[in-house]
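B., you asked whether I could sanity-check this one before it goes into the benchmark set. Here's the sequence:
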Amino acid sequence: MPAKLLLLVTQSDDGGAQRYVNDLAVGLTDRRYKVTVACGPGGPLIARLRRNKVDVRVIADLARPIRPWKDGRAFWEIYSLIHDGPYDLVHSNSSKAGFLARVAGRAAAGKRHLFTAHGFVFQEERSQAARSAFLLLEKAAGMLTDRLITVCDADRELALQHRIVPCERVITIHNGILPSPPLPTAESRKRLALPARIPVVGTVANMYPNKGLMDFVAAARHVIQRHPKTFFAVIGHGPQYLEVVEAIRQAGLNDRFRLYGQIEEAWKLVSAFDVFVLSSRKEGMPYSILEAMNAGVPVVATRVGGIPEAIEDNVEGLLTPSGAPDEMAHQVDRLLRDRALGRTLASRARRKLVHYFNIDRMIDETERVYESLL
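And here's what the prediction gave me:
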């Protein structure tokens, strides 16, 4: 008889936690699990899962912003879902769903509960009071957690440092993707309406402050001084969109930037870029880095979260401090000037992806954690 698994995530838009939930749900459905996914309304994750015959329950009041009245209603929806399941395992993702589900799961007859941290919210750029409050909530939820999965060793060390859970209850399972050929460069540039023979520096990132897109725009201003024909591309959307647009305008780069919003299967289009940049100020293990590695595009990224675990500096890519757009621009300049260096770094990165950062390894390791609890 298949084990019944409930996967929860706060939002149903396109993001790393949603990608992770989708990949686990589809992959485990093909094994010995009966999977249900619960998430907030309105995003493409819902249709994507249903196309793959995964049972989806929409939690109408579950959303990212803190809204006590709606959060209370979301809690009762989650409690009812868990209580009436019945599920053998409850596996939550993202901070809001993770906290509500762990409390609801313990109230609903002590269900076995896992939580995957895709980067801790108390590490975000907030006031000290807010960060302290989120840390206290994470520690309280940790007491209700049978296993904490971190997507990088950096977050595992944070969990142990802050005593969120004992060491025997936390494990790192790096994200993985299915190595697949991207579109040919000429076709991906055609789809993005980019000129065929000019340098393109691009990123795939939702427009949240954590992604450091203001640093990306500032770096572009430095790059354009040395490579005036360069185009810059951003695939993704989010609440910081208008700020990004204004930063581009103030930098005088309106004719050099292309903002595409959300694109389904954006990984196929990363091959349009000569250099992939990730300017994040906080990360777990970003899928966009893995997609650039898969596409064979050289990477410049900030040295935060799990990024150095995927990209070793000067081996598979080039790393910079976060919040240092001038250094980021310098590394982009290196790759635009030295295409042979870029090809070498990208080739090593793709070999590493195929060997280790693949989806089968991620699902196998996650299944072993499930089995240890079942």
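One thing to flag: The radius of gyration is 21 Å. Otherwise nothing jumped out at me.
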